[in-house]
Design brief:
heterotrimer; A mainly alpha (296); B mainly alpha (620); C mainly alpha (100); B: 620 residues; mainly alpha; 65% helix; 0% strand; globular; C: mainly alpha; 2 domains
Chain lengths: 296, 620, 100
């Protein structure tokens, strides 16, 4: 950030004002998420049951999508990795003309991938799934009484998204390190990678929300729905703001506004990003792993 | 980025409305807070007077029960969030940089942003009056009364959104003051040499940053319940409405310390000046403040003794509440110790300070009574509680703030307030206050419940209530005297010098009012009472900010309109949420538009330099 | 800049960051692995919480560099964190969800 004349020349403690501000903010944000997680934990196990109608997938189109989704996904994942690498290379070489199309292609791949999975994701709900979820087939054989709660959580999928977010913390800290050594191309590459990984994480969240909605868990359905969506949604909002912040730094660095002199500003952005990661560590451990243990 | 980027040039003129809208000068921002708070005080005061008139005798029909509910809700909400807090903020803003020898706060634009958010939040909350459905569920808004089922009107929504906006204002200011006080102190000004007011400001800033997020969540959960249909406070879905009470009071209790500590700081700095001796036991007063803050997070459920939490919970919170009386008592004894043996000058600031000490002590005593669970079971939801919190908030906070106004008015305006009218102001207020609120202990103990719009003629409460209503009119008279004093002074009051009171702290070493850069040279501080030191007059030339050059050599941060734009964007976004409830598409459009504006304003603010290169130095 | 907090030379470099990342991934893998074991809920909770605390500390200590920075940042963050934890435990106790 271009400070022509900074008031923050000498500070009483030798600590930088903006860094102090960020740490105070993070301490405060602990209380924010603490209250949210408390709400979740206090209401755990208090959700009533829901009645879900059975259905078998008769939609041929969705069936077709579902069947092809697997194969197409594989191709898309490979394409996505290529696009990711291509984007990073373009960023590293500073070839702005290539970066924007590369980012758009990557974004398009993510969107198509998501769409296929969402369109093809059809929770086939039969008596088998009902009992698997610990539910009760109601007399009449047409519906199932089940508590829509932790049994819906998809641990493998969320482990993957947790991994993605952890890697984004690594790339963040590598970006900072590169900037400290005045390696601008490397800095931009790592920071772009952080942004993309953040977006991928958000993609996982969007997918998960969609899957749950299709399975009948809405914020209104029961307490678990209310607490889950609000907690993870607000975390996702924090991630989104972080992505916006970091990408504006990438853009600014291409305009020459972020240089080795801006190490502190990038460090402060990094502090926010890592905080968002550690909140997720807590959420994943407490809400997903401990929460869903022994259930479904 | 050049000053010409964007639609408008970066403001440079020191005068005119635009200069006030774009100011980043802490002194101007302080004045803006103060004036706004005073206006809100009159509004909340009128609400109180109407209530008192309604209650002056049994079975009155001056206002309907629905209106009465709106009155006590808005009176409480306004007084807490839009009067006492911003009045404190007015003092923090104006005085902290002056007291620590800084030119401004750490983040001047963030400071301006705080004020505009406060103003917009206030307007948003009061916009509810226009819809004829002001909030009516009490200032603490217990669930499930606040659910759509029981409060379908939009009053609750205005309240929730207004409070969220006000919360942003308070938190931004708190972050600013934490950094300012920790980092911008003059050389030699160690933490234990700071004026007690600065200490209290630091403490309440920490309280704010750690307590406010909890009510942000409580409000957010309520918003989701009302607008999305979640079940956070819906007992039918297995939730517990008590969750609201817990979350609210985890914030709410630190909040009341946020309301009282500034007044305590003010009084701790006024007493030495008018007794000509240092504050008795300064370290004890400081540590008492710190421990009150810590312990304040551990007593919240004393507001919930009658909700059936069980013996263990009741016992723990009762014990903690009694403990917290100890540091408070330490402070009271230290103030008394300061007065003892001092060369007391009974000027108006001192009168209000003594009024503060005595009235706050009474309020503290009734508070300790409430800490005893069986006693509280009788007192809860009666006028006894109303008496308690008015003694601490009016007799405490407000008297302390009045002391501060009378004390620092000369510094801020360059004029003295009239002593005679000041004393009249004090005595009318003291008498009126006690007339209005002391009998509430009695009538509360006799069983008069809170939040009732009328009562039966057979209760026997008529004469006491009439007496209290008359007392409230005496309070009104006291504020008329106050306004007369202020207006007369501003027009033709006696000119104040740098240090009309002969005080000891460095804000009195510069002119009244101070120059826009505060100190020509940042002073070096070597004691708690620098201006009383031996050889002070020798050092005066260094400390005095008098300057023939109009401060050209000193660079101050340039004004900026981004704080105003960003806060307008956020306020409109909040308004958009209200619209969404009524008309989804229009609401969504407003939310997105102003959300994008807010993001854009944030980006532009972030890359705006503190000072434009090659500019005319603005003088304010 | 006299005031900006320039790190001492001892703060980690890229190689250490990658090492930490590997450790974090391993710890996550163990956490997820424990999820698929059949042990008492209390044991599982204990293990996962410990691992989570470990990951938390690694990120806060090394990526956010609290280990190498001025102590006062640590104090500031710790106050918020400990307060949040204490209130969380208190609320769970008050609502009876500590023993479920």
């Amino acid at each position: 950030m271009a400070h022509v004349q900074s008031i923050e020349e000498q500070t009483s403690t030798g600590l930088n004002n903006r860094k102090l501000l960020m740490w105070a903010f993070l301490g405060s944000d602990c209380m924010f998420f603490g209250a949210l997680i408390s709400t979740f934990l206090v209401y755990r196990g208090r959700s009533g049951s829901s009645i879900l109608e059975f259905h078998e997938s008769h939609d041929a189109i969705k069936d077709a999508i579902g069947i092809s989704a697997g194969g197409v996904s594989l191709i898309l994942i490979l394409l996505g990795i290529v696009a990711f690498a291509f984007t990073l290379m373009a960023v590293r070489r500073g070839i702005v003309k290539r970066i924007i199309p590369a980012v758009l292609v990557l974004f398009a791949i993510v969107v198509i991938f998501q769409s296929i999975w969402i369109a093809g994701h059809q929770p086939e709900f039969t008596a088998h799934e009902c009992t698997e979820m610990g539910g009760l087939v109601l007399p009449g054989g047409e519906s199932c009484e089940v508590t829509l709660a932790e049994n819906l959580l998809d641990i493998p999928l969320t482990s993957l998204s947790t991994f993605v977010l952890l890697m984004s913390s690594l790339s963040m800290v590598m970006a900072l390190s590169a900037l400290e050594r005045n390696n601008l191309p490397s800095f931009r590459t790592w920071l772009t990678a952080t942004c993309i990984l953040g977006v991928v994480f958000l993609g996982f969240q969007v997918f998960e929300f969609n899957a749950f909605l299709q399975e009948g868990l809405t914020p209104r359905e029961n307490l678990f729905g209310s607490t889950f969506y609000v907690l993870t949604g607000l975390h996702g909002a924090h991630v989104t703001l972080g992505v916006l912040w970091l990408s504006s730094l990438v853009v600014a660095s291409f305009k020459g506004k972020v240089t080795q002199k801006s190490v502190l500003d990038v460090e402060i952005a990094g502090l926010y990003w890592h905080f968002v990661d550690i909140v997720w560590i807590v959420i994943f451990s407490v809400i997903y792993l401990i929460g869903a243990y022994g259930i479904g | 980025m050049a000053a010409y980027a964007g639609f408008l040039k970066r403001p440079v003129s020191p005068t005119g409305v635009w200069s006030w809208l774009t100011t980043v000068d802490h002194k101007r921002i302080g004045l803006l807070y103060g004036v706004t708070a005073l206006i809100m005080f009159f509004i909340a005061g009128i609400e109180a007077v109407i209530m008192r008139l309604q209650l002056s005798s049994s079975e009155q029909t001056l206002v309907s029960p629905e209106i009465y509910n709106q009155l006590f809700t808005m009176h409480g909400t306004t007084m807490v969030f839009m009067v006492i807090m911003p009045m404190g903020a007015a003092f923090f803003n104006y005085l902290i940089p002056l007291m620590i020898g800084a030119r401004d706060v750490a983040f001047p634009r963030l400071n301006a942003f705080s004020f505009w958010m406060f103003l917009f939040g206030t307007l948003l909350m009061h916009a509810s009056f226009l819809t004829m459905s002001a909030p009516a569920m009490g200032w603490f808004a217990y669930a499930p009364l606040t659910s759509l089922e029981f409060s379908p009107a939009s009053g609750v929504d205005y309240w929730v959104l207004g409070l969220q906006v006000l919360g942003i204002a308070s938190m931004a200011a708190a972050f600013n003051f934490v950094v300012t006080i920790i980092n911008l102190r003059a050389p030699g000004l160690t933490l234990m040499r700071m004026p007690v007011f600065v200490w209290m400001t630091l403490i309440i800033s920490f309280l704010l940053i750690f307590a406010f997020p909890v009510i942000t969540i409580a409000l957010t959960l309520l918003q989701f319940d009302r607008w999305v249909g979640t079940h956070f406070y819906n007992a039918a879905a297995g939730a517990d409405p008590l969750l609201w009470q817990h979350l609210f009071w985890v914030f709410g209790h630190p909040e009341v310390y946020i309301l009282i500590l500034p007044a305590m700081g003010i009084v701790s700095d006024i007493l030495p000046t008018f007794t000509r001796k240092p504050l008795f036991g300064y370290p004890a007063v400081v540590f008492a403040g710190v421990s009150i803050a810590f312990m304040g997070f551990g007593v919240w459920s004393h507001h919930m003794f009658t909700t059936g939490m069980g013996a263990w919970a009741n016992g723990v919170f009762s014990f903690a509440t009694m403990l917290i009386a100890i540091p408070t008592g330490i402070k009271v004894f230290n103030w008394l110790g300061t007065l003892w043996g001092g060369a007391i000058q009974f000027k108006t600031p001192l009168l209000f300070s003594i009024g503060f000490i005595s009235m706050f002590t009474l309020g503290g005593l009734s508070g300790v009574m409430h800490a005893v669970v069986p006693v509280d079971t009788q007192q809860q939801d009666t006028y006894f509680i109303v008496a308690h919190f008015h003694y601490v908030l009016f007799g405490g906070s407000l008297f302390g703030l009045m002391a501060g106004i009378y004390y620092w008015f000369p510094k801020m305006s360059g004029r003295m307030l009239n002593e005679g009218i000041g004393k009249l102001n004090f005595w009318l207020m003291f008498i009126g206050f006690n007339m209005t609120f002391f009998p509430m202990h009695i009538v509360g103990a006799l069983g008069m419940p809170r939040r009732i719009y009328t009562y039966g003629a057979d209760q026997g409460w008529d004469s006491i209530n009439m007496f209290m209503t008359i007392g409230s009119l005496v309070i009104v008279a006291s504020f008329l005297a106050f306004m007369v004093n202020v207006i007369r002074s501003l027009q033709s009051g006696e000119r104040a010098g740098d240090n009309p009171w002969g005080a000891a702290t460095i804000e009195w070493s510069i002119s009244s009012p101070p120059p826009h850069y505060n100190f020509l040279e940042i002073p070096t501080v070597t004691s708690r009472y620098p201006l009383w030191e031996e050889g002070h007059s020798k050092g005066a030339a260094q400390i005095h900010g008098h300057d023939d050059d109009d401060g050209h050599a000193v660079h101050m941060p340039d004004p900026s309109y981004w704080p105003l734009v960003l806060s307008a964007g956020i306020a409109m976004l909040a308004g958009g949420l209200l619209i969404w409830k009524w008309h989804q598409i229009l609401g969504f459009t407003v939310i997105s538009t102003f959300g994008l504006l807010a993001l854009y304003a944030t980006y532009r603010w972030a890359f705006e330099p503190v000072n434009e290169p090659n500019h005319e130095e603005p003088h304010q | 800049m006299a005031s900006s907090n320039i790190h001492e030379k001892t703060h980690p470099g890229p190689r250490q960051y990658i090492t930490i990342a590997v450790i974090l991934v391993l710890m996550t893998a163990i956490e997820v692995g424990v999820f698929y074991l059949t042990i008492t809920p209390a044991a599982m909770t204990g293990i996962v919480l410990l691992l989570a605390l470990g990951k938390f500390s690694l990120v806060v200590g090394y990526y956010m560099q609290l280990r190498f920075d001025d102590r006062r940042f640590l104090y500031l963050f710790t106050v918020g964190f400990v307060l949040a934890l204490a209130i969380m435990i208190a609320l769970m106790a008050l609502f009876g969800s500590l023993t479920r």
